[in-house]
Prior knowledge:
The protein is an alpha/beta fold. The chain folds into two domains: 64-178, no CATH class; 186-434, 4-Layer Sandwich (Purple Acid Phosphatase, chain A, domain 2). The protein has eleven helices and 14 strands.
Amino acid sequence: MGRAYALPEKSSASRLPPPAYDGKNQTSLPHVGPGMGVFAVNDEPPVDSSNWLHHALVGLDRLTRIPSSVLALAIVVVSALVGGTWYVFTGTLLISLLMGGAYLVAIVADWIWLAGLPKRHISFGPVEPPLLGLGGVRLFIAFLPLIGWTVGWTGTGCVLLGMSLHLLLSALVLYATGVEPFRLGTTPIELFTSKLPAGKRVRLVQISDLHVERLTRRERQLIQQVNELNADYVLLTGDYLNFSYVGEAQAIADARQVLGALKAREGIFATRGTHQVDPNALLPVLFEGLPIRWLRSEHVTARRNGFQIAFAGASCTRKPAIDVPAVRKALAGVPAEAFTVLLYHTPELVSEAAAGGADLYLSGHTHGGQIRLPLYGALFTATDTGKRYEMGRYDTHHLTLYVSRGVGMEGRAAPRARFLCPPEIVCVDVKGTADKT
Length: 437
């Protein structure tokens, strides 16, 4: 059974402390709470040199060192460049002032909005990297109407197009950062199996990629929705803190409040996410004193009246030489008659899960792409399987794989945004079909 915690309405922190853990080996994590010691981080594999996303997020963090005065000067210079370019093409001072001014007003509005996200208790990422990214997009928008000018558009038409595109982008930014990240939904799934007697049902609720920075209304909504589902088992598939806050005491305390408030009738099982976000040192700190069983290359078989259900879990390093044996070990010895659930953070080990006898494979990691395009879907998934298993349900290899879009968002320099990819809780109802006789 879960343990209830009272959640504070707001965190007093509005500025970001420097992260205490950068994905590399370090000697300790902070002491958090009574009875919690210091855990050494000495068994993590190094970050793969081919993991471009990790290196990009860490590298782009350097942009946060840009002084505000330099950033402001750069914005003024670029705005002048926009206006000057339009003057060269049109020879009209008014058009150049309007186009340069539109860029300046739009990017300053972006800056004000991004800087205010922590104060509004929406998200807690850095301002500079997403602001510079938006600056590049807005520069493209500022020059795009020049194509119209070259084919005979009026100056008024060009100005209206440019301003309309700036306004559209502003609306998308407001929605992607302030609205969709809080559209937490529950995705219902029904599975039928002959491993349970007809009429029996087991409800499994999966939560993945919490990526807690601070407590927000999303985390409070998560607790309420999960507990209202009245799950038999709650299953956690990794990445509990945001990458910017691994090892940071306030984030750990807030994550513990979320985890401690979850309720399940029979039990809560968890596995580790990527080792940069969930170092082995962190999970004992997160889980100590909570009714959560951390599965490390092992399984637990629950014997209920008339059937068995097994939960297997393996830690994720995204290194096949480590993880494939770990998954095999987790599934080894599971009773053939047990309905078997594998918890592993990424969807990359489907073949191994099937070979080990898993009936249901729950994963996350992809965030569903977090930013998706109509018709195309995820821009990238940060997995070796690419778009093959980007999100949702896949019935393959004689098992069901579900790839959760997750709850939180990527950290470090990544924008705290979701588009066409709202956060989700996954509710799996496993229903029996076996003849009772």
